[in-house]
Every structure is written in structure tokens, then in C-alpha cells.
Specification:
single chain, 402 residues, alpha+beta, Hypothetical protein af1432, 3 domains, five-stranded antiparallel beta sheet, two-stranded antiparallel sheet, 15 helices, globular
Length: 402
């Protein structure tokens, strides 16, 4: 039997363990229900390379992710969540095979957040990240506009946290842009895992910084500066041998604009562009959000050399008003973009507030290229709080002429 290492550093003294714990050689160290009695006991488990069965390990990981999700929903402080120990209870549902790679974008977001929070202590992370990646690509292939809509809407939900939504959205943007550039699978593949994990060395802190009202501390600035290299070390510890992927994570904050850009450097630059683009469109307590169209224009106008092509392709791939973002129409109504249009600046939209700022209950898709529904200006998430019914949006989109 090959045992999966358990996250010893995240085990609380005095609490019962929900799994049997074994040594690397197969010796039973602790039976299910027995507690760790001291810090010295934890050190002893570490010396034995303590682990548990693959099935128990995955179920325990799912129980942790479920716990984190519940705490976020309850509004528990992120620092408290960051210091939470592994749960002492595993439900029967946590043992369902393949649960982590099923469902929609928010299901993937919940699972990915748990892995990112645990970082190097995550249980069986490599295969689980692979499952998330394959499911994400399947959802994207099935409906790219719905994928963008779900993830952009999730960006505005503080209860979901930020780090995992940011990662999934960066992966989607990288894939759509790479397709626009006609990159082959071999060139796109490293971007998938890199986008999901590039901020793994500061995931919990990333969620905290997204909410804090004070300026960044010197320690936080140092963390931001160091996290690409630290993240590459974490991924190497997962046993990944994809040097292109790990290099993309290590260099996704490029130090300078290169004069010539070979393909592997283009991947890193695209990852960096997606990372910055998503970050700029999210409000902070210390600064307002940029609209997607402003972020796109800043990115394109500020590009030089080979980066011009990358920036332009990204703008074409997601549009000036990506699905899930909000706009003010010339008729005075506030609408949500739901599907990219023929041009980057003419998406299909659904009005959600009338000109008197009253909610619109009947969802009807309108072509913003038509003068009657032309876009006047973008509206950022922090300026608008309205509940959007995703199922109604999908039904309305079905009536858009093909």
C-alpha cells in the first residue's frame, strides 16, 4: 500500500483524527478516533512520514474544503480560516469518487480554493489539480460565454473569496487568447496549470489583501515580490516535472519587457497579462476597480513590441465588456453583458435595472450594436449590487439568433 502524506502541521493537539494513520512502512501509528497528544507527538509522526490511504486522504481533503466554504459563507475572518486545523469529522459524502471534478464553475472554485489554501500541505494535489483543469476546459469548450459570465459574476462575491476565482478566470482568459493566437495544444498546455497555481504561495494572504482597508505592509509587499519563486518551489514539491509550467509560474511577474519574445517567453507574458487584467477589474478597499474596457485599453495602449499582439488577442478574446460585467445603456438602463458580439465592443446584453434603477424581472437579450441598446459606459462591480439569476440568463441566451 502506498500511503498519502497527511498535513501534520495542520493537525490540532487534543482533537481526534478521522482516519487511520500509518507509517511509510505500513505500521499503524494511530487508529481512527485517537488524538494527537502533544507537539512532540506531531514531530514523531513527521519522523515516520505519517500518511493515510488514498481514499481517506481525498475524503479528508474534501471535508477540509467543505469546512472552509462554510466558514467563508458565515463571514468568518480570513485569518481565522487561515489558521484552522484539519477537521475531525469526515462525512460519507466526502468519499464520493470524483466529486472534486464534477459540477460547475463554483464547484471547481470551492475545491481549488482548498488546494491553494493548503499549498504544499495539500493532499494529493497534482492529480486533483489535473481533474480541475480537465473539467474547466470541458466547461469552457461547452460554452465559453457562460464560463466568462459565471466567473466574472463570482469576482464580485466576497463570500466566495478571490484567489480561486482569479485563478480560474486567468486560465480561461489564457486559453481563449491562445486559441485566438492559433497556438497549438503543446503551447497552451503549460498555461492551464500555471494559471491555476501561480499564486499558490500567497493564496490565503491574497484573499486577505483583497479585503483589507489599509495600505499594503512591507511584509505583504515582500510576499508579493517573492511569491512567484516560492510558488515554483511548492509545485516542484508536488512532483510535477513540467519545466515549462513551473517556469511560467516562476516568471509570471516579468521584471522587464524583453526585446525579442520566443514562444516560451510569450506564454509567461500572456499569463502576466491575464493576471494583471483580472486584478485591475476587482475593487479594493484602498482603490476603485477599473472597468474591463479601461483595463483592456490600458493593456493595449501600453504594450510594446511583441506584447502588442498578445494584448490585442486578449482584448478580442474576452471583449471590451466581458460576459458577467455591467454596462450603462444609452437608454438609461443598466445591463449585464451575457455574450460576446460580432465586435469586441458590441456584446449581447440583458437589462437588469430600468432607467429609474428599478429591477427588471423579464430577461431579454439585446444586441448592443443596435442604436436603441447601445452601450454608453461601463459600470464597475463596486458601483452596483443586484442579484442576477444565472438560469434565467441561460434561458434568455437560448433565444439569441444563431
Amino acid at each position: 500500500m502506498k500511503y498519502v502524506p497527511i498535513p501534520i502541521a495542520m493537525l490540532a493537539v487534543g482533537k481526534p483524527l478521522p482516519v487511520d494513520v500509518w507509517s511509510e512502512s505500513g505500521q499503524l501509528l494511530l487508529k481512527k478516533g485517537q488524538p494527537i497528544v502533544s507537539e512532540q507527538h506531531k514531530e514523531k509522526l513527521h519522523s515516520f512520514n505519517a500518511g493515510t490511504t488514498p481514499g481517506d486522504a481525498l475524503a479528508w481533503q474534501r471535508a477540509y474544503e467543505r469546512m472552509v466554504h462554510a466558514l467563508l459563507r458565515e463571514g468568518v475572518d480570513l485569518q481565522v480560516i487561515a489558521n484552522a486545523s484539519m477537521p475531525s469529522e469526515i462525512r460519507a459524502a466526502d468519499y464520493v469518487v470524483g466529486q472534486e471534478a464534477k459540477g460547475g464553475w463554483l464547484d471547481l472554485q470551492s475545491v481549488l480554493r482548498g488546494i491553494l489554501y493548503q499549498g504544499g500541505l495539500a493532499i494529493n494535489p497534482a492529480s486533483r489539480l489535473e481533474g480541475i483543469k480537465h473539467k474547466a476546459l470541458a466547461l469552457l469548450k461547452e460554452d465559453a460565454d457562460d464560463s466568462l459570465f459565471c466567473l466574472y459574476q463570482a469576482l464580485g462575491d466576497d463570500a466566495l473569496g478571490y484567489c480561486a476565482t482569479h485563478a480560474l478566470l486567468c486560465m480561461v482568459i489564457c486559453e481563449l487568447t491562445a486559441q485566438k493566437l492559433a497556438w497549438g495544444v503543446a503551447d497552451r498546455e503549460p498555461l492551464h496549470g500555471a494559471a491555476l497555481t501561480m499564486n499558490i504561495a500567497m493564496a490565503r494572504e491574497q484573499d486577505s489583501m483583497a479585503r483589507q482597508s489599509s495600505p499594503l505592509t512591507d511584509w505583504q509587499r515582500s510576499l508579493i515580490h517573492d511569491h512567484p519563486a516560492r510558488g515554483a518551489e511548492v509545485l516542484a514539491g508536488f512532483g510535477w516535472d513540467d519545466t515549462d509550467l513551473i517556469d511560467a509560474v516562476r516568471w509570471h511577474h516579468l521584471p522587464e519587457e524583453p526585446t525579442a519574445m520566443p514562444r516560451n517567453l510569450a506564454r509567461r507574458k500572456l499569463l502576466s497579462l491575464a493576471d494583471n487584467f483580472v486584478a485591475q477589474t476587482v475593487a479594493r478597499k484602498t482603490r476603485a476597480a477599473q472597468s474591463a474596457v479601461k483595463a483592456v485599453k490600458t493593456m493595449v495602449l501600453g504594450a510594446e513590441g511583441d506584447s502588442v499582439g498578445l494584448s490585442s488577442a486578449l482584448a478580442q478574446a474576452v471583449g471590451f465588456y466581458p460576459p458577467g460585467s455591467y454596462v450603462l445603456l444609452a437608454n438609461g438602463e443598466t445591463a449585464v453583458s451575457v455574450q460576446r458580439g460580432q465586435r469586441a465592443n458590441t456584446p449581447w446584453v440583458i437589462s437588469v435595472l430600468d432607467k429609474d434603477s428599478m429591477p427588471v424581472t423579464a430577461y431579454v437579450c439585446r444586441d448592443s450594436s443596435q442604436a436603441a441598446h447601445a452601450i454608453q459606459s461601463p459600470v464597475t462591480f463596486d458601483k452596483l449590487r443586484v442579484a442576477i439569476q444565472a438560469d434565467k440568463v441561460r434561458r434568455a441566451r437560448e433565444r439569441i439568433p444563431k
